[in-house]
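Can anyone check this?
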Amino acid sequence: MIFLYIILFFIIFSYILKKLAPYIIRYVIKKNLEKFQQSYKKKEPEKDFKFKSKKEVGDYIDYEEIDE
């Protein structure tokens, strides 16, 4: 008799899960989208670009091609 209850439970549980699956998936996607948007809004691009190097590199040497 317990075996019958277990099988009946799994049949009913799978039926309910099939009916609720779209709502569960929609909820999970909505929460992940909100987290993504919040993390995207927190990242602000740098406005101050520093192109100059702080190290002293040395002199620039211009080499010319030699025609033979």
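Reply from J.R.: I decoded it. The first helix runs from residue 2 to 42.
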